Amino acid sequence: MFAVFLVLASFLVGQEKKKETLGFELDVFAYATGGYYGSVWYGVDNLRFRGVIAKVGVPDFFIDDKFENNEVNAYAFIVDYFFKPNYEGWWI
Question: Where does residue 56 rank: exposed (0-12), middle (13-18), buried (19+ CB within 10 A)?
Fold first, then answer.
């Protein structure tokens, strides 16, 4: 019910045209190390919201001999703010 209210309120408040985008990305490096990487984003105005899931295998020559099958698993939700329009240039 609250979500419906937010959607309706977004139509009533601020009738200005907003720049929106939706996309996804894959990273070849993760696949090359035996893992995966996927990211989905939604952007509006100068903000971009990203969900990320990744698994990267660390090559043996990067780690000490005492470690075996070292891999990194990452799950993240990220908010980016771009200083220029169209998601260009510097961002935090």
Answer: buried
Q: How far, in Å, CA of 26 to CA of 18, rounded?
A: 27
Q: What is the spatial distance between Cα 21 and Cα 10, in angstroms, rounded to a whole number? A: 17
Residue 69 tokens read as 């099958």
- Please tell me the pTM assigned to this model: 0.64
For residue 35, give Cα distances in angstroms to 31, 43, 57. Answer: 5, 27, 6
Per-residue pLDDT of the chain (92 residues; tens, 9 = 90+): 545 444 555 554 555 567 789 999 988 888 888 889 999 999 999 899 999 999 988 777 777 778 777 888 999 999 999 998 877 888 88
Q: Is 37 helix (H, G, I), strand (E, B) or coil?
A: strand
Token pair in block for residue 53: 């899931």
- The position carrying tokens 């139509």 is 11
